[in-house]
Each structure stands twice: as structure tokens, then as C-alpha cells.
Amino acid sequence: MALRLPSKVLKHILSFIDSNEDRNSVSLVCKSWFETERKTRKRVFVGNCYAVTPAAVARRFPAMRSLTLKGKPHFADYNLVPDGWGGYACPWIESMAAKSPYLEEIRLKRMVVTDDCLERIAASFKNFKVLVLTSCEGFSTDGIAAIASTCRNLRVLELRECIVEDLGGDWLSYFPETSTSLVSLDFSCLDSEVKISDLERLVSRSPNLKSLKLNPAVTLDGLVSILRRAPQLTELGTGSFAAELKPEAFTKLSKAFSNCKQLQSLSGLWDVLPEYLPALYSVCPGLTSLNLSYATVRMPDLVELLRRCSKLQKLWVMDLIEDKGLEAVASYCKELRELRVFPSEPDLDATNIPVTEQGLVYVSKGCRKLESVLYFCVQFTNAALITIARKRPNLKCFRLCVIEPFAPDYKTNEPLDKGFKAIAEGCKDLRRLSVSGLLSDKAFKYIGKHAKKVRMLSIAFAGDSDLMLHHLLSGCESLKKLEIRDCPFGDTALLENAAKLETMRSLWMSSCFVSFGACKLLSQKMPRLNVEVIDEHPPKTRPESSPVERIYIYRTVAGPRMDTPEFVWTLHKNPEIGVSKLAIK
Amino acid sequence: MEGGSVSGSASALSNDENLVVSCEDSCSPVGNELELGLTLSLGRKGYTRVAYADDSSSSSSSSSSSLSRASVIAGIKRTADSMAATSGQVVGWPPIRTYRMNSMVVNQAKTLVSEDQNSEIRQEVNKNRTDATNMRSSMFVKVTMDGIPIGRKIDLNAHKCYESLSNTLEEMFLKPKTGLSTRETDGRMETPVKILPDGSSGLVLTYEDKEGDWMLVGDVPWGMFIGSVRRLRIMKTSEATGKAQMIL
């Protein structure tokens, strides 16, 4: 007779398990474990809002208190997904309002959220505490006002890089007049001015406020006055740092910052004038996170700032830092774990190269804890990649964007195959990889073979043939998300490896050579995948061989979705069209 | 050795213009991987891309009817280059979020201002924030049309005059086969240029400027328009007349 763990005991054990991956494993052991686990899961994560229905989620997890949802595919960030594709939050909110009224936290990424939706959230969840919207759109400041005024227990309200219809700064005055329970407020993506007096009063009556991210409309004066009222902040996003240069202004700013003894994270810094940077020196030694990626500060000023940041773990900066600056980072910021270097010129043809591969090599050599990299530069070499892999085998996230498509190793003129081979082989814990530059199918053979833990892979302008995709789909054991653009292949590898697609969250391919016929065939053969063909200008007739603009494939237990716009083709919408040509030559 | 001798496994090789695809259950990878791998690797040198002879309606910017791997790559590269030449960018490349792109353009304007000029000039640069978007980059603004719940985005920097903007908007919103238009299609296909505020099309193109006012598109020189536009709206003439009176 099998020994059964009493469910009370199991419940107690499970209360120590937070990771959803672990909980997913637990729920596969046997039925009773499945039942106990599902009844105790509080934080639910749904990586693709179309993979499962809201009703199914609510049913399975009755104790849900926190829901995280992701909508559009990642490439939507770069305008590759036409507007109106989908990712609507409303059906989820409706369902949760009815079935999970105790929901306290909602986190949405790349979803379309309307004001109605926000009002619904405000009205339906009595104990609502946390709203984080990342890269969302479709709502206005009216919706934010509804949340502010109705959610009396609101702790976190963060709008991260959302596209918001900004109807003015009034929303800020809608927070309750008595003290608020706000811990974190981020309105950095809003355009219009908020009344400084409203902001001051809000800050004064929010004793728990730890994180505040202002929008660019807040001036330096405003910032000073806020800091005076909230010296306990641990995270600050400044507003605009530009102002007429006046000595008193500088002194006031300096003093205000020096009172913020707990500040660990600094961001914003739009339009920052180098003359004002010294005002930050007092907080530098305590900073663990610094986002200078909107600050057009140049070299000597940057180094003066960074050399004081010995505890820095996360640095986002523009390529104005130059290789020299990165060399300085390598010697002063020994705790660095994450580095992102963004281009300062949007232009593809920029011949002015502030950073080269050398900058990243410096940091890889000097910063032993470096594990996450996002690096934009114009060109690279295999030697540099090999060095980086050798020095930093602990890399978990490596995203290299060589801006010029098909750029080879500029010293040897070879493809960057050897370099990425070194990365895949050497960095055994790599979970996320973005490749660029000139790459042949060989590079992907290495990646497929060695990148065993890579879950997300991004590829552009690479490879020679279907072999590339075949290597990836038949290798890469942990692959969950694959996104590809402008690569010369499609059908063969896709169809050969169709089964792999069910083990992944999603596959995105745009401007490749996937034919319409292959899409139809895949849809027919794999009912548990949703295959979406996205053509902004769909042709009147579609021959089997015509390549599609974009294809988005994802596994789902929710069946075909019902909210597709005109420009998304799915088999479900066009059932009478079968695959006609089935010959093999 | 040509890859044409593959049997049983899914193959994209063909010597006529139709892409042929295996329908058999050999689509499943079991047992075919070796064959596939071997064939493809042997066939690589002489690998022929299918010619999409009937893809006249293809809208993929990088699709080409070239026959060899090299020319396929070259085709993609040519497209990337030509797009780079015309608009300064390939769509969505480099992979930088729009929000950041727009900030970058402002920075570009500032680097033109020399380092030791005083802050007054910097403030002016800030005021001319949207002027700076004249520089080579994308400037995406939202476009909504009355009656259509979902808005679109359009890159104003891809246009140099009102006519081309109008043509693009017409394509986006009034193209009957995409079905985006909720209006009846009788006669709408020959809609005259939308900007004309004479109401002949029943539609009028308006924009919201920096100050929050709604203006008729076409009244000011293009450069000024670009400098102050925040978003666009295609209104019904009846509504627009009302608004126009407010502005005038």
C-alpha cells in the first residue's frame, strides 16, 4: 500500500516552495499532489495570455493572489507586430473579477489595457495592492486616476514604458487624502506635467514610500522639494535634470541628495547637464543600480561619477561611455552583475564608433560577477567573443547587437561562428542569447549542441539555409522562446521539427522564407499549436508557395483565439482551405 | 550532389515554381533526421532556393526570387541597405524600443550644440524637442480613425510631404480588402486625398499639436507640422467643422 503524505503535511511543505517551476514539477507527481499544489498556489505566472483561458486559470488556482500575464511577442517592442494584433487584458480582468475577487496583484507586460479595464480592476478587487504595467498601451490617465482613487490599499503603481494617452496631471490628485499605503510609484513614461504641490503632498502623506520614479516634466526644483520630503527613498527616478545653471540650485540639489542615505537605485536623469552630476556624488558609494541610458553625459564626467560607485551591480549607459569609460568601470565597479550599453545614434550608418568590442572585453575581464550583458556596437571580432567566454563562463544572459547586419569579424573577415561557439560552449549557464553579425549555419550547429540551458534565443540576419533552424530546433534542449527575423529559410526545418514547437512557449519568424503552404500544413498537423500568419497587407489570393511576412506559433490549451484582427490568418478562420499540393519530387 | 534525391522526408526542394511539401506522417522527425541532415549538408553546395515565381503579391521586404543562397543573402542585404538608405532604418532594426529611439533623436540634436554653450541654448533645444525628430530616425505617432476602435502608428519621418502621408493613411485605413474600414465601400476606394477639408470624402485629417489643440492637417508647412504634431486623428467632417470653428 502506497504511503500517502497527509495533505496538511504536504501543504506545509509546499508553503516553502515559491518557484513556479518547482511547483509545476510538484503538480506532476500524482493527482493528490496536483490538487494540493493548485489549491495553495498564490502567485500565478502566465507567459502567453493565449496559451490558456482565464477561466481555466481561475478554476485551477482558487487561492491566487497575484497574476502575471504577458501578451504580445517580444518583437512587438521593435514595431514588428502591427497594431491591433491582440493581447487584450479585459477578458482576463473580467474573468478574475468574477472568480478571483481576492486578487491583490496584477502584472501585465505587452498587453492592451483600456480605461474600462482599469476601472474594473479598481471596482472588483477590494484588497488590491499592486499594479505593474510594462510596455502596455490602450489606456489613459483617467484609468490611472480610477486606480488611485478607489484602491485604498494600493502599494505599488508602476507604469513602465507604457504608451498612455496623457490627459493631464490631474490623476495624481486622486489618491486618498488621508495617508496612503504607497510603497512604489512610477509614472516616468507620462508626458504631461503634474502639479508639484500635488506631488509634494502625496509624498508627505505616504510614509512607506520607498521607490519613486518621476517623469521628465518634473524639474530640478521639483525634485529637490520631493527629496526633502522623502529622504527615505531607496529607488529614485529623477525628472529632467536640465535647469539654468545657478550655484544655489546646485547646492540645494547636492544637499537634498546627501540626505538620501538609503538610495540604492538611480534612474531618469533625462537631459542631465554634466555640471550637475557632482550633486550625485554623495549617493554614489551606496548605489547598486544606475541607469544613465538617457543621459547624454560624455566621458570624463561619466568616469568621475562611476569611479565613486564601487558597489554598483547594475549599469545601463549609452555608448558615449566609450571603451575608455568601460575600462574604468572594469576597475572601479567590481560588483557589477549587469551591463547594458545602448547606442547614442539611431542611425544605421553611423561611422562614429564610440564603443568597440574592446570595451566589453575590459568589463568581462575586470568584473568577475558579470552575468548579464546587452551590448550594441558596430562590429565585433571572434577573438573578443572567445576572450569574453573564457573570462566569464558565468554569463547567464548575453545579448550582442552588432548594428550592421551581416558584419563579419572585422579583423579577419570571417563569420562570427567561432566566437559564438565559444560563448555557447563556455557559458554553460547561459539562459538568454541574442546573436548578430555574420553567421553561417555552423554557428547554429554549435549553439544547438552546446547551449543546453538557453531558454530564449533571438536571431536576425543570419544563417545560410534551413540547416540553421534545424540545428536549433533539434538541439537547444531548454529552448522556450525563439524569435527570428530576416533569415533565409523556413519550411523544411520548421516542418521537420514541428514536435519541438509543443515544448516551447513560442516561435516568431518574420521576413524569412516560410511559405503559406507550410503554415497551413503545420496548423493542420499540430492542433495544439496556434499558428498565426500576420500580414499587414494580406494579398487577395495566396498561392501555397508565397512567403508570409510573419508567422507566430505558440502552444496552447485554449484552442484558437477569437479576437484576431483581419490581418491575422489562422486555420480556424479559414477551415475550407486545405493543403492542395502534397507531392514529393 | 543535389538534394533532390531526398525521399520521404519533408523537402523544400523543387525544380518547378511550386513549393512542395510532404504531407506524409514522415513529417515527424523520427527516422528522418539523419537523412535530412545528410542530404541537406551534402546538398548545401548546390542547394537551390525555391523560386517563388508567383509571389507577385508578396509584401515581405526581404523575400526575393533569387535562386542561390548567396543571392538570397545578397537580396536581404540589398533590401536592408536600400531601406537604410531611404529612411535611415530597417524596420525594427537596430532592436531598440521606440521610446528610447525618440529619446536618442533628441540627444542627437543636443550633440550638435557645443559642450560649453550655456543652458539657455539647452532649454531651447529642449523646446525644439520635436523639431529634432526631423533628423534621420523614426517618429511614430498614433493615428486613430473615428469608428475604428484600434489605432495605428505611423512613422512621420518616412514622409516628406503631406501627399505621401495622406497616401499612406489611405492605404492603412481605407484599403477595402483589409476590411479595416468600417464604412461601406461604395465609392470610398476612389476617395480623394483625405486632407482636403472640403468634406468631399466625408473625412478630415486632423492632428493634436504640442499645446493640445486639434488642428487641420495641411495648413502649415510640413516642417512646422512635424515639429508640433503629437498624434493624428481622421475625423468625420461633421465633427471636424465644429472643432475647426473652435480653432478659428
TrEMBL record, chain A:
Pfam short name (any one): F-box_5
Matches recorded under PROSITE patterns: FBOX
Organism: Camelina sativa
The entry's keywords: Auxin signaling pathway
All copies of domain F-box, residue ranges: 1-48
Lineage top rank: taxon: Eukaryota
Name by which UniProt lists this protein: GRR1-like protein 1
Record-linked SMART domains: FBOX, LRR_CC
Classification via SUPFAM superfamilies: RNI-like
Gene: LOC104714990
UniProt key word Hydrolase: no
From TrEMBL, chain B:
Sorted UniProt keywords: Auxin signaling pathway, Nucleus, Repressor, Transcription, Transcription regulation
Main location: nucleus
Residue ranges of every copy of the PB1 domain listed in the record: 138-237
One Pfam family in the UniProt entry: AUX_IAA
Localization per Swiss-Prot or TrEMBL: Nucleus
InterPro entries, per the entry: AUX/IAA_dom (IPR033389), AUX_IAA (IPR003311), PB1-like (IPR053793)
UniProt KW Cell cycle keyword: no
Family indicated by similarity: Belongs to the Aux/IAA family.
Subunit annotation: Homodimers and heterodimers.
Function in brief: Aux/IAA proteins are short-lived transcriptional factors that function as repressors of early auxin response genes at low auxin concentrations.
Protein name per Swiss-Prot or TrEMBL: Auxin-responsive protein
